[in-house]
Amino acid sequence: MNKLKLAASVLALSAMSVPASAEEVKIGVISILEGAFAALGQDGIRGAELAVLEVGGEVDGNKVEVITMSSDASPDSAVNAARKLIEQDGVDMIVGPLSGSEGLALRDLSKSYPAVTFLNGSSAAQDTTLRDSSDNFFRFGGDGAQWMVGVGDYAYNDMGYKSVAVIAEDYSFPYTQVLGFMTEFCSAGGKVPEKFWTPIGNKDYSSVVYSIPQDVDAIFVALGGADAVNFLTQYSQAGGDKPIIGGSITIDQSILDSKGPFKKLLVGAPAGTPTVSDYDGEEWSAFSASYTEAFPDGFSAPSIFAHHYYMSAKAAMLALDAVDGDLSNDQAAFRAALTDLTFVTPTGGTMRLDKNRNGIVDNFVTEVYEREDGSLGNRVVKVVRDVDQLLGQDEATFLASGPVSRDNPSCP
After folding, report:
1. How many CB atoms lie within 10 A of CB 133?
2. What residue ranges do the domains of the chain occupy?
3. Of 39, 280, 346, 359, whose CA is between 20 and 30 Å from 336?
4. Residue range 3-142+280-361, CATH number
5. Cβ neighbours of residue 105 closer than 8 Å, sequence gap 6 or more
6. Residue 273 in 3-state DSSP?
7. Does domain 146-278+363-400 have CATH number 3.90.180.10?
8. Would the CA dihedral through 128, 177, 387, 281 be positive or negative?
9. What is the pLDDT of residues 61-116, one digit of tens each?
């Protein structure tokens, strides 16, 4: 039996033990289950289900039902999934979505459903919470720029890279990751002479591979899922030898567990991430053990997607417990509990939200390495604590720089 189905069966069995008079809380989980990011989306669902499994499928006598819906990384598909979950399935809250532009769409949609609480999955576009935020949209996990803090400085000062080309998918999350990297790298004196933006699901990277400037010191790659595998495979086959700097999902365990000779390009690659597969912290060890026990057909360690969907679902469980399952008055007490919530994350940090309901996070600068068994993992180079969405800058100055885009920031 598929382990996700098994997990759902366990949830149903847990719910059967709850008295018939108990209230039911319905959680809709939206994740990408088709296309280039399908394997990532499946792991996101694992993370959400794990948080519910940990409480036995009920909170304070209220059984918890998880209803999953697939999107395809497009904003329209995420909106359609959310509308179906709310209007037909009657969910009380939504956990998701996975991808950046989907998150922006659900942020906007949430304003039309004030009685439903939206808890972001792993979507990490900056403006989802920074600009035009929504009172009933929460993100326990930060944005993609926060996830790159420390990497630009490390690449310039420790690795000695002075000039870097960028290869990234052409949508809001990679724009945000590039901002996080370039903010530090350019401030240190680095240059980014060329950016290559590619569509999600691209199969042929030959034009990009042969256009990478030969005089750059390294390439910053912000691709995920099959896109990352396809680019790295074709770059390796073409004899590419520039060192890689990884975006958060480019060096995620979901990629490191893939097959192919391209993986040799990643050994030694620095990256930024809030999730480290080979972290030796006590909390992470316990989380990884719970993950692999519940989902033995999952990855060798929880991916960033499992981690972030887990944190949002865990936050929901903790807030439900704090208000004894009270979702009355358009979930006012529940949302107040979410707003004030603090809890220890699987990486050992303390999760809390800023005024825009966006997570303040601990971020890791990591390095890909080869384990004794020949598989690849990430190890910690350094930790940057308490990273906020303004990247430590003055709010007015930061906002004045404008929304991220293909061309913002720029340091040619």
Report:
1. 18
2. 3-142+280-361, 146-278+363-400
3. 346
4. 3.40.50.2300
5. 75, 76, 78, 79
6. strand
7. no
8. positive
9. 999 999 999 999 999 999 999 999 999 999 999 999 999 999 999 999 999 999 99
